[in-house]
Design brief:
The complex is a heterodimer of chains A (169) and B (343). Chain A is mainly alpha-helical. Chain A has 6 helices and no strands. Chain B is an alpha+beta fold. Chain B is 41% helix and 23% strand. Classes of the chains: A mainly alpha (169), B alpha+beta (343). Chains A and B meet through helix 1, helix 3, helix 4, helix 5 and helix 6 of A and helix 3, helix 4, helix 5, strand 1 and strand 2 of B.
Chain lengths: 169, 343
């Protein structure tokens, strides 16, 4: 079950990454695309808790950092998605979170991830965009992720829940 | 207050302990309530070490950054290469899968206009429609290859033809794309990438079958450029990722030079042709601002290339490069195909 879960999570991340770099840019709004990898991590956090989500977030982030179109310092998305795994994992409080919880968690996670990514960029001196544009990108990213939540999160969460080992009684 | 609570604590426990049944029930109820509050039981143990895991993974991320920043990322280059070799072909495959889907709106447009025009020839129309639907995409691509061949002829360089298969998101605050040509095709870092319209960018890293291209609209990209009409030199920087039209800023070295509107801007070229070869058209001057404080001109350049719909691009390579595909030679002819077939 553990390996099945890891394999399913890895496959979900890979598919999300491929869609994000190949399909999503054709639908991009001002160049901003939905962060599908982030949605996978949030889904994992909401169903599996922070531990699993943080590890998945690190792996997914490292993949985002190293896979071809990326040209930034490796580790920046990894850090952002680890924090997302932690934050979203802490939100999980019920066995099946309500729609409002899911949407607000996605919005918060998207905001945290993009801002954190931008902040590490500022710290490392890699970012040369104005604050206005930065906020616009962060805002649009949140909108995109929230818009896609109803379509992407339920199947992902169902997948992670089905692969969950039986809870301790 | 604290004292009061502390003294009331044991007393409460004592009073609860005397009627045994009630205490057990209330204890169970309390535990249940606590459990409900902290939800699924096992979480309590799972929750606690998550902070140390957070710190550990955060440090791991920091280590990655440090590794990447020291020695120009030499430590991570092999890893990047491996990931590029695995994910790159997958991206190319995904783009190939996605492109017919993207051609669907085109297909419907063709379909509706045809139906209006040739409503009487319906059965002929259906055959035609199916043909056109798939042909439109191919025709566009063929036109792009034709343009690329013309560019190779104009520039006098050999080009490796390739397609864009992955786009970096604006959330990464850098404008990069993946192309489906890598070191196997003779592509190396710091090579110029052009399209039929003009300069696209330069290769920043190359895997075996894919390469990453930094577009000239990226804010961290600087291109040595000159005004085609006056030969004034300057530096062209991207303006960032946001906006449908990527605009470029040109800072001229000669402060007194004032370019005219619609003057063309071309690359001035670096030593040895890396990262940019000379004479590649970049764009057109659209606006000129004079900055009084810096006593220089800021020139806004509109690039010829439409970065929103990049598809076929060419990488400028030295003539005679061995490649896994046919090169477009400086005479506009395809060459080197047999070399690739043998390898």
């Amino acid at each position: 079950m553990r390996t099945a879960r890891a394999a399913a999570a890895a496959a979900a991340v890979l598919v999300a990454l491929l869609l994000q770099v190949s399909l999503a840019p054709h639908l991009a709004w001002q160049g901003v695309v939905p962060n599908l990898v982030l949605l996978v991590v949030v889904a994992a956090a909401l169903t599996r808790g922070p531990q699993f989500a943080m590890v998945l977030g690190f792996a997914a982030g490292a993949l985002l950092d190293l896979a071809p179109p990326a040209d930034h310092t490796a580790g920046r998305w990894a850090l952002a998605l680890v924090v997302v795994g932690y934050v979203a994992g802490r939100v999980r409080s019920e066995a099946s979170p309500t729609a409002t919880t899911v949407v607000s968690t996605v919005a918060a996670s998207s905001f945290v991830a993009t801002s954190l990514f931008a902040m590490t960029g500022l710290l490392l001196g890699e970012l040369s965009v104005g604050v206005g544009e930065l906020l616009l990108v962060v805002g649009l990213a949140v909108v995109w992720d929230v818009v896609l939540t109803p379509f992407v999160l339920p199947p992902l969460m169902a997948m992670f829940r089905r692969l969950e080992p039986a809870r301790l009684a | 207050m604290a004292l009061l609570e502390r003294t009331s604590g044991p007393r409460g426990g004592n009073s609860g302990a005397s009627p045994v049944g009630r205490s057990r029930r209330s204890l169970a109820a309390r535990r249940e309530r606590r459990e409900r509050r902290w939800s699924p039981g096992p979480d309590l143990d799972r929750q606690r070490p998550s902070r140390s895991l957070l710190v550990a993974l955060g440090l791991a991320s920091a280590t990655l950054m440090t590794l990447d920043l020291t020695a120009g990322g030499a430590a991570l280059d092999p890893v990047r290469g491996v990931v590029a070799d695995v994910v790159g072909p997958a991206e190319a495959g995904a783009t190939a899968l996605v492109s017919p889907v993207l051609a669907v709106p085109d297909f419907f447009r063709t379909h509706s206009s045809l139906r209006e025009e040739v409503a009487t020839l319906e059965e002929e129309n259906t055959a035609l429609r199916a043909e056109l639907g798939s042909a439109a995409f191919q025709r566009n691509r063929l036109a792009a290859y034709d343009e690329l061949t013309a560019t190779a002829e104009d520039l006098g360089y050999s080009l490796v033809p390739s397609r864009v298969v992955g786009w970096g998101p604006a959330q990464s605050f850098s404008s990069t794309v993946t192309i489906d040509a890598g070191t196997d095709a003779g592509v190396q870092p710091d090579m110029t990438v052009v399209s039929g319209a003009g300069l696209v960018g330069r290769v920043v890293s190359a895997g075996r079958t894919t390469a990453t291209v930094l577009l000239i609209i990226d804010p961290s990209s600087t291109v040595g450029a000159r005004i085609g009409d006056t030969l004034d030199m300057g530096f062209l920087t991207g303006r960032g990722v946001v906006g449908d039209e990527g605009r470029l800023d040109l800072e001229l070295v000669d402060r007194t030079a004032v370019p005219a509107r619609a003057d063309s801007v071309v690359t001035w070229g670096s030593d040895g042709g890396a990262p940019y070869v000379s004479g590649v058209p970049i764009g057109r001057v659209t606006r000129v601002y004079s900055s009084l404080r810096e006593t220089s001109q800021r020139v806004v350049v509109d690039p010829y290339v439409d970065f929103g719909s990049l598809d076929v691009v060419g990488v400028v390579v030295p003539t005679g490069t061995t490649s896994d595909r046919a090169l477009v030679g400086p005479d506009g002819e395809l060459s080197g195909e047999s070399d690739g077939a043998e390898q």
